[in-house]
Design brief:
The mean pLDDT is about 95. The longest helix is centred in the middle third of the chain and has 15 residues. The protein contains six helices and six strands; from the N terminus they run βαβαβαβαββαα. Helix 1 packs parallel to helix 5.
């Protein structure tokens, strides 16, 4: 088994994708930041952006140029409404997709919410040597993704992206 430095501190950007959330009512963004800080990770940047493909794309591209950013976590915009476009924006941007992330997220979600887990379009992968995780916007989904998938693996993902 490949060991990674579980104590490594990672610089992470948190993006909430929403037409309705504000800094005051972004419970999922607050939860992500809190869980990261509990593990001593650095929330390098936090922003709320609208559900618009071009805006998501340009924001992620711009942040990927920042040498301080190692990981981006996007929450929201993963469902099936007309305005949910985070998946479309990120899936076409990724250099490599981590198929297992979405599969595991939906499998774990299934044990909590049943077949409605199929409606999540969670995705992860890399772009410009940055780790990117896209998760639904509900607090339960955020808690599940962060505690079961993202926090246990983000250091390893960063190490893999930095290996020569």
């Amino acid at each position: 088994m490949h060991k990674h430095n579980e104590k490594a501190i990672v610089n992470i950007t948190v993006l909430t994708i929403s037409d309705t959330r504000t800094v005051e009512n972004d419970e999922s963004g607050k939860l992500i930041k809190s869980l990261l800080e509990e593990q001593n990770h650095i929330v390098h940047h936090y922003q709320i952006i609208k559900d618009e493909i071009e805006l998501i794309d340009s924001t992620v591209r711009s942040l990927s140029e920042d040498d301080e950013v190692q990981v981006m976590i996007l929450t929201g915009g993963t469902g099936f409404t007309r305005r949910d476009v985070t998946y479309e924006a990120i899936s076409k941007l990724l250099d490599k997709e981590m198929q297992g992330f979405g599969e595991l997220f939906r499998s774990l979600s299934y044990t909590e919410i049943g077949p409605k887990a199929m409606f999540s379009r969670a995705i992860a992968g890399s772009f410009n040597d940055k780790a990117i995780y896209v998760i639904p916007g509900s607090k339960n989904a955020v808690n599940l993704a962060m505690t079961k998938l993202i926090l246990p693996t983000c250091q390893h993902f960063v190490e893999e992206l930095n290996r020569q």
